[in-house]
Amino acid sequence: MGFESKKIKEIYAGKVAETYDIHVAHFFKRVKKSTFSDSSMKNGDKVLVFCCGTGLDFPHILRKIGKEGEITGVDFSSEMLNKAKDKIRKNKWENIELIEADITKFKDKLDKKFDIGVCTLGISIIPDYKSAYYNLISYVKNEGEIIIGDMQLATGWQAHLNPLTISFSKKYGGTYEGHKNSLELCSMMKKELTDVRKKEFLFNSYYYCIGKTR
Question: Which domains are delineated in the chain?
Fold first, then answer.
């Protein structure tokens, strides 16, 4: 499958949304928990979540921001957002807003700033990942926090596992190019943000990177 926006949208307009939580939630539960445990987000914070999908990040975020905080989730897939809406209704979460939109074109769409910007398991499948990244940053306050978590190409001896990683993620839009872009994105964060820290999991095939805006 080529690395094209149209094909990515077709994937998430299909049956992926129906089984996404079953296959992804358990597999990434530990790393997501670690990611948000390492975050500085606190009670009352306003959090913007790009590629929010079915809302798998919401419980982790809500545990830190409480009922006084707010989440704004953005995703291009109505099918994935419908799953997120089901979670919101079931759990009676009242401080979450969902927006259906393309995050690569999501600049100047909101008239407020956020304390935290989040994107996990999303940017690596977006061809125009730099636009998505910079749009996320544009909504975060000075000295606010940026949290990126995604698949990447492993290096060293773990590199021989890269074909398996890409094969696993292919049904979700994963490609060699996208995993390579993750490495570039971390380099960008280290140059453009402050207090950047990175942690790797799953034989270095997954990482999270956290930093503060200038």
Answer: 5-212 (3.40.50.150)
